[in-house]
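Recall that a protein's primary structure is simply its ordered list of amino acids. Everything else, from secondary elements to tertiary packing, is in principle encoded there. The following example makes that idea concrete.
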Amino acid sequence: MAESIDIRELNERIERQSAFVTNIMTGMEQSIIGQKHLVDSLLIGLLSNGHVLLEGVPGLAKTKAIKTLASLIDAQFSRIQFTPDLLPADVIGTMIYSQKDSSFIAKKGPVFANFVLADEINRAPAKVQSALLEAMQERQVTISTNTYDLPQPFLVLATQNPIEQEGTYPLPEAQVDRFMLKVVIDYPKLEEEKKIIRQNISGTKTTVKPIMGTSEIEEARKVVCDVYLDEKIEQYIADIVFATRYPEKYNLKDLKGLIGFGGSPRASINLALAARAYAFIKHRGYVVPEDIRAVAHDVLRHRIGLTYEAEAGNVTSEEIVSRIINKVEVP
């Protein structure tokens, strides 16, 4: 009985403290029509301190959504356009000689911002990828012999274009795994498309005003950590991830030859963190199985390696995740 009262209290507290989410959603809707899944994913990444990889054809408001979110939170925003001739120094910064002080000083690069948009991340060579990797994982940057902490909150939102492969470098598995979510963005619906046309030919420009500061996001992250995750839900998460590694143990023998490698423990951690943030967005103080199912595709699609057999049969990691979710027993 005491536990149920605690959950009720927690639920009421989270409902109060997650009220700002509605304001952010309303602010985003002024600039972005539709793309609710994209907005949810950006919020999950922000509240869970995780990076987001967005994949979609050009023109689906990926950049606009990220810039709008940064404006609503009154955060520093920087955009790095990744190109084949980009150097690590162009991202993290470099040491320059100051004649005034007769010494070298650090000139910090665009990665020193709260929101970093890495546009077309798969266009840059491996050296640049590894420079960004340290920033993403360690939340710090090394310039020459000095290490500098990045501002908090720090969020890398990377985009990649799935249709144009000329002059691109496939992202290494180790780097893709650093992204908490890989979100595939689809075209808007017909009614939304008409609204988009109307909004863009009207000539009026929507101005986005900040509704909160970065310190409030830091506070919200602490509250997200209080969202209750039951042992049964933990078991459910572990079962889903284990089914990507050992499908035959979950009556999915036919997937055995299609999966090259399954999700690592990072997949389990991120599934739990993303589900917590999703529950918070829904103004709930506890995680339910539906939250896990809602975030599972975005957390797992880039963490399952496909065999040649799967690629030959046009089987996607998306389909594999769907089959696992439909098969693993729900608590």
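The CA atoms of residues 207 and 297 lie 34 Å apart. The chain has two domains: 32-202, 227-327.
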